[in-house]
Amino acid sequence: MKSQIQIDRKTADGKTPLKVATINGLNNSEGDAEVDKKVTIPGWLTPESIHKHFNGQPIDFDA
Fold it and tell me: Which domain of life does this protein belong to (predicted)?
């Protein structure tokens, strides 16, 4: 069985993603789906940092 998590980030200026996002695909402790859960995205979670991670560069979690 495959799982998928969707992170939906919006932008106010058309360029810079907001720090708040909506996540779908998570379950709570009872196993029920969490729908449209609002979260704050850490600064290190960017497409660039994930790409670098899979290409041999460690993620800087303090960013």
Answer: Bacteria
